[in-house]
Amino acid sequence: MIKHLLVLISFVTLISCSTDGMDTVAENNPDETPIATELYFPSTTSAEWETLSETELNWNTNTGTELQTYLEEQNTKAFIILKNGKIVNEWYFNNFEADDSWYWASAGKTLTAFTVGIAQEKGYLDIADKTSDYLGTGWTSLTKEQEDKITIENQLTMTSGMDENAFTCVSSDCLNYIADAGNRWAYHNGPYTLLQDVVANATATNYNSFFNTELKSRIGMDGFWLNTEATNNVYFSTARSMARFGLLILNKGTWAEDPILEGQAFFEAMTTSSQNLNPAYGYLWWLNGKSTYMLPSSQEVFNGSLITTAPNDLISALGKNDQKLYVVPSENLVIIRLGDAANAENFALSTFDTDLWQLLSTYMGLD
Fold this sequence. Notes:
The protein is of the alpha+beta class and about 375 residues long. The chain has one domain (about 1-365): DD-peptidase/beta-lactamase superfamily (Beta-lactamase). It has helices at about 1-15, 60-75, 110-120, 130-135, 145, 150-155, 190-205, 205-215, 240-250, 265-270, 350-365; strands spanning about 75-85, 85-90, 100-105, 225-230, 230-235, 255, 260, 285, 290-295, 300-305, 315-320, 325-330, 335-340. Strands 2-1-13-12-11-8 form a 6-stranded antiparallel beta sheet, with helices on both faces. A 3-stranded antiparallel beta sheet has the order 3-5-4, sandwiched between helices. Helix 2 (about 60-75) packs antiparallel against helix 11 (about 350-365) and helix 3 (about 110-120) runs parallel beside helix 7 (about 190-205). Keywords: Hydrolase, Signal. InterPro entries: Beta-lactam-related, Beta-lactam/transpept-like, Diverse_Enzym_Activities. One of its GO terms (molecular function) is hydrolase activity. This is Serine hydrolase.
């Protein structure tokens, strides 16, 4: 495992409780025992994790074989499907093993969004507050009047209004004015990364310590934040730890009977359209099923749903080179994909999402 971590660190430095519902999977097979939709949660202190078989779920096993081959050919390292919280598929490819860690890239933004929600819930901050309340005046190169319009919520929604050309830079001299906060959506790592400083200053503690105590340890995740010059603060973990976080999101912030994020107001805001400029974006989460969407490194507005082959209620954590965390509430699904880029390097969305979901929909009988 240490060998893999050293390789990953070098690589990244270079590239920068339960839910209600009575659905069953036996509607067309009345002789089979129905599988309830109540969510299962694995222990936070052991590696034990209950499973379901694709046969029990009446999924298409032939397509499952095709899916597995496709994933391996597309440079996948880890792939997990959870149904009702239980593991249906857990596959590792391309010299990668279950206890190896891999980087989340920008999919890890969702961890920070959730942590901001915890900090607000505990009274350390309010996302309506000016960012300068926590970073001090002059954290940008803007005038004080321009800077004072930027709130924590603007950082969460990519609407700070600052120039994103110096994409990962967090120094004041590369945080330059383009528009008043709230009037322009642009995917920008700099203001996002500074959210972790906001949390640290608001809580008067180290960001990693707050994250570990309030989120990571409470749901049994492993992993660590690695600060790199190229990509700022990036999270690494095993695939199962990403699946744990996805399960937490599926259950709206509660792990089994432990409410990690007690109030639902922040959770609902985080996972719904956060502004009108790009309705396919929440608080650092990507949202399917909206009428239009925007993408990183572009001001173009595209018509239609983000991933046309996926369920409309899909919410996604998307990271560079096809790091994927998909959550589908209507189907009680969590799906994880980690690895190298499937086709070509990308920031978040790629054609891989569409192709993968076409296979998944056929495999699970969703189309």
